[in-house]
Amino acid sequence: MLLSQWAAAQVYEMQSGMIRFYSDAPQELIRATSRQLKGALDIKKKTFAFKVSNASFEGFNSPLQREHFNENYIETEVFPESSFTGKIIEDADIGKDGEYKLRAKGKLKIHGVEQERIIDVEIRTKGNKMIVHAEFFVSLYDHNIKIPKVVYDKLAPDIHVTVGGSMAVTAAR
């Protein structure tokens, strides 16, 4: 029984995750948040995967702004999800209680375009729970998201993204 408990403690699943972004352009500040971030982290293999439904973002300045996000920029009907899959680079026993500052290397997929990225990640482990936090920028150009000239001053070319959430050990499978 102890061995199966140890094996189960290798995989953490996102229980409550959030992703938010903001665009700080000369004429407009745009903020949106999704509380539907899903993910899993296998500490033995040092692998993880996170995804979010693009339609789940809320909090725009107006319903029209949300509509433009979904229809014109992210094209949610064609690209329903954004994701990041990868591996933790450093050697650290993140299953033990403590605070860790690590780097994650993987593929960030937005708007159907994958980009290899290295992202700084903070992990705080206590018992069978983890708190994960990361901040990074996403270049619209790198993900083939076009900004029409008419809104060029209202949308920043690089979007600030914050990801975080609580993860817990899953039951043995």
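Next protein, fold it too.
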Amino acid sequence: MLYNLLVPYADQFQLFNLFRYLTFRSGGAVMTALILSFLIGPAVIRWLRLKQSGGQPIREDGPESHLSKKGTPTMGGLMMLFSVGVSTLLWADLTNEYVWVVLFVTLSYGFIGFSDDYLKVRKKNSKGLRGKLKLLGQIAVALVAVLWVQKISHDSLDNMLAIPFFKNLLLDLGWLFIPFAIVVMVGASNAVNLTDGLDGLAIVPIMIAAGCFALIAYLVGNAVFANYLQILPVPGTGELAVFCAAMIGAGLGFLWFNAPPAMVFMGDTGSLSFGGALGAISVITKHELVLAIIGGLFVMEAVSVMMQVASFKLTGKRVFRMAPIHHHFEKKGWAEPTVVIRFWIIAVILALIGLSSLKLR
């Protein structure tokens, strides 16, 4: 909004020229989202405690250390959604449709997650929204987003899949690109959701991934940088760097309250929405496979659940002591902070590998 309001007057007021720069507006988005999170966080937590007498239901078969978390309110993702939404609307170019696509996915997935959290709290169990209904909603939102993105771009490369670490290697998926993109968004959303099981575990990798995609969006949206790095240019995507920056600011603010011992959990409200946002951004910037590398921690968590379920159904035996895999290490005796910090380290390493794909070709 500030960009649209002030840049037309940049010739008269030199200071307004700053709003032409993505770097300046991204910095503003970080600080705005962070400050908003700090300001509204205490009030949101008090309101959630008032409305949730028992807090988020704790799995009875989970690690014993989690019993101490009983009574902690969930739906903390609401403060993140508010901070990201306001910050993005304030600092982004609102004529850029890619921004609206990502906001649509984020808020829609946030609504699905909120519905799930609400039912969990109301019924006082960990089941929440029916799995099939939740998945159907996610697929519907992703389908609308993919078709919207293709309508915006009108590019012959719409259905192309870029292969990281290779120069100009593109796979033409044809009509299969649409279901592929849907799988990316829905998969990213649910993978982040599965990772959100320990205090601070999910939010830091989310911020790491958001930081990486802020850079990717900036480079892909700039024809000069894209040609230099020999990556597929997508005009207009640079504006998504502002959204990613807002995610980082909101994530830092949420971590202040989510640091052990957590005062609030993000719940599906936050994990589904932020995971979906990362998936949408990867589809728009044509870096879907790079998301699988940068967000490799999320992939690992999701794969551990799939392996556990498949093994138990086929053989009656479990691969891990408990899934997702972070609970496996808890069952092995690792302290929660040990699991969290080591998983953060893994997330940083994977992010560096993913970013290296921009140059190593």
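About the second fold: The first strand starts at residue 160 and ends at 162.
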